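hey so u asked for the seq, here:
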Amino acid sequence: RWNGARITACSFLGCTFDRCAWSDVVFSFCQMSDAWLLHCAFRSIAWGGLQGRSALVQPFGRAEQCEFRYNEFSGMALKQFDFSKCTFDDCKLAGAGFRGVALSSTAFSRCDLQKADFREATGYRIDPSDNQMKGARFSFPDVIALLNGFGLVIE
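ran it, structure tokens below
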């Protein structure tokens, strides 16, 4: 359990975080790669510091059954890994890259998804009326899932 921690210049390489609860954690110039986040709760986390000086770093290998509330991911390239059965609530994901990500039953509510890239992503649950989505990119046929919340019958 981390509460109000400021993590500076640390490396987390190939780590598994299982049943962790982090709140108000700030990462500065830290390195994280291929981390597995399992059954965790993350509240008010600024993940951007994991990238340090490089936008090419892929900090996460997998996130499963995690809750992200009030987290900051804006501009991060979150691609080519698995976010299975996670929840993003009131998170800043503007410009985030989810291209090709497996989002099996992952839900987004009250999130800033403006200019996020969901092309070739699968399994997301997004209600367009509950999220900011201007300029977000999606691909067919998965984009049809955005209509689920409207009670439409598509044949």
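The first strand starts at residue 2 and ends at 3. The mean pLDDT is 86.
lmk if thats what u needed
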